[in-house]
Amino acid sequence: MEQRTSAAARFAAAIALIVAVLVVVVVVSAGMSGDDSSSGHRDGKPHPQKQKKQRTKAKTYTVESGDTLTTIARKTGIPVSELQVLNPEVDPQILSVGETLKLR
């Protein structure tokens, strides 16, 4: 026996496929948008940002084992770009333990 598919059934299947694709797109885009509506913050107010570490009052910093300009910037509160300007002779890829960096 040969079954024949009606035009209405084919049309309904196509519509169901389109709806399924649209649902997937909406769910994925909502997940990637960074919308935190599920975290309970629905009042539209921005989230409080982490407080920046206050700048150190020290004039120099001595490089320790494992330090990078990024970790030094976090420890001292001085941006990496400013550390680079203050220490143009320092290669940011090769910091030596005991090396002294200017912070002011």
CATH architecture of the domain at 60-102: Roll
Superfamily (CATH H level) name of the domain at 60-102? LysM domain
Strand proportion, as a percent range, falls in 5-15%
User: Helical region count?
Assistant: 3
List unreliable stretches of 5+ residues. Answer: none
Instruction: State the order of secondary-structure elements, H for helix, E for strand.
Output: HEHHE
Q: What structural class is derived from the secondary structure elements?
A: mainly alpha
| CATH class term of the domain at 60-102 | Alpha Beta
Mean pLDDT: 83
Shape: rod-shaped
Radius of gyration: 29 Å
What is the rounded distance between the termini? 89 Å
Please give a structural write-up.
By secondary structure, the chain is mainly α. Among the domains are: 7-33; 60-102, Membrane-bound Lytic Murein Transglycosylase D, Chain A (Roll). The chain is 39% helix and 6% strand. It is built from three helices and two strands; from the N terminus they run αβααβ. It has helices at residues 7-32, 69-76, 80-86; strands at 60-62, 100-102. A two-stranded antiparallel ribbon has the order 1-2. The radius of gyration is 29 Å and the shape is rod-shaped. The N and C termini lie far apart (89 Å). The mean pLDDT is 83.
